[in-house]
Amino acid sequence: MDLERWLDEAVARHRTWTAGFGPYRAHPSLEITDERFAEAFAEFSDRLADNYPFFHPRYAGQMLKPPHPAAMVGYLAAMLVNPNNHALDGGPATARMEREVVEQLAQLFGYHNYLGHLTTSGTMANLEALFVARELHPDKGIAYSDEAHYTHRRMCGLLGVEGHAVPVDELGRMDMQALHRLLGTGRIGTVVATAGTTGLGAIDAVHEVLAVARHYAVRVHVDAAYGGFFALLADDDAAPEGLPSAPWRAIAECDSVVVDPHKHGLQPYGCGAVLFRDPAVGTFFLHDSPYTYFTSDELHLGEISLECSRAGAAAAAAWLTFRLLPPTREGLGQVLAAGRRAALHWADLIDRSDRLRLYQRPELDIVTYFPVGGSLTTLSAVDNAAALVLAEAMADPSDPVFLSTLRVTSQAFGLRAPDLTPDAEGARILRSVLMKPESEFYVEQLHSGVEHFVHQVLSHAL
Ligand SMILES: *Cc1c(COP(=O)(O)O)cnc(C)c1O
């Protein structure tokens, strides 16, 4: 699709829509000449250029990529109206679109009679799930793994709930024996299982967590902010990109789940989602707003959410995108599968490399690796080299590569590379999230680029 053509069309349609309400006098206080705008916009555009090329496969760092053009057009078209999805009278069209989008997400996870809505972020979505967890078990703590997103610890503090970090196994997944012991103390009311950790992309054994939790009558919340859409690839037979299905299928039986369409759902920022399996939790959100003007008896999205104002444009963008690339195996699934194949292919190249070594095999589309060779026999040397590779690769004027680093503990490192001398408490390794399908066609270039920078860093050191 031609982005410019459809952005123009969105503006033209908006003009037609507004004209239908008749003429009115513009106010001089808002008037800006094109000359003045041109000047400000030139400065603005120059400043905006100070960014990393998230769209390009040479950007293989953090979880960042531009939204799909369909999402851009949907967002802009709705933003011209600027509906607020807090209440139905803030924007009936986008509130309905939100319901339909959330229904598609519910189907993705196998939720039937649920309560759910979009949020501005995974953080807010998780906060709601932990808030409900606290309301249901006010005197008990919340458990999450050592590799869970740091938001869980912080939100437990905010909610005044005791947070418990459960150790992880040698692949970064919640340790089941440790969970058993913790739940045996009777101090925990809710366990957070992470389906795709932000650092390594490790998948907690949601099905096993669920079994242990049910044994102790404890709730299970699944943080699938990053990994959720990989449920589309859950298939025990679809090599190479198919994923063992048990953890993904178990989400249907868990009490709540969070997914971020602004990560793997092709959406711009401002789009998370939370779903509760039991709609009765809606009673915890009761409020008595004197401001919200109710024009209908339908449940308002603002009545089941901690956030008030939210961009209706976020729902619009997701709705339009999902019309074209729905969250199905054949739709969005193909986008995720490409990133996953890219990650697996890169892992194979790293396995055969004498300049790079895998930290662990990618479970989803995150590749973690570190430089090897020469003097790199200690954690501190690896840490230093990884940081230098990151900096030099990014600064190369003609053929840059953009990576990210991940700090790991010496204990975690020792489980994967016991031959390195643990002379520090931890080390930075390199990390690449291959979340753009285009990475599939670029992996070999990426690999030789990174190898080149490792060589460059090591030869400087000599
Ligand atoms: C990204 C992420 C979050 C936080 O979500 P935001 O949308 O960045 O607020 C929480 N948990 C996991 C597993 C994540 O990957």
If you had to describe this structure to a student in words, what would you say it looks like?
- The chain is an alpha/beta fold and 462 residues long.
- The chain has 2 domains: 77-289 and 297-324, Aspartate Aminotransferase, domain 2, CATH 3.40.640.10; 332-461, Aspartate Aminotransferase, domain 1, CATH 3.90.1150.
- The chain is 41% helix and 13% strand.
- It is built from 15 helices and 11 strands.
- The strands form 2 sheets. A 7-stranded mixed beta sheet has the order 1-7-6-5-4-2-3, with helices on both faces. The chain has a 4-stranded antiparallel beta sheet with strand order 8-9-11-10.
- Strand 8 (356-360) and strand 9 form a beta hairpin.
- Helix 7 (176-184) runs parallel beside helix 8 and helix 13 (379-395) packs across helix 15 (443-461).
- The radius of gyration is 24 Å and the shape is globular.
- The N and C termini lie far apart (51 Å).
- Bound molecules: pyridoxal-5'-phosphate.
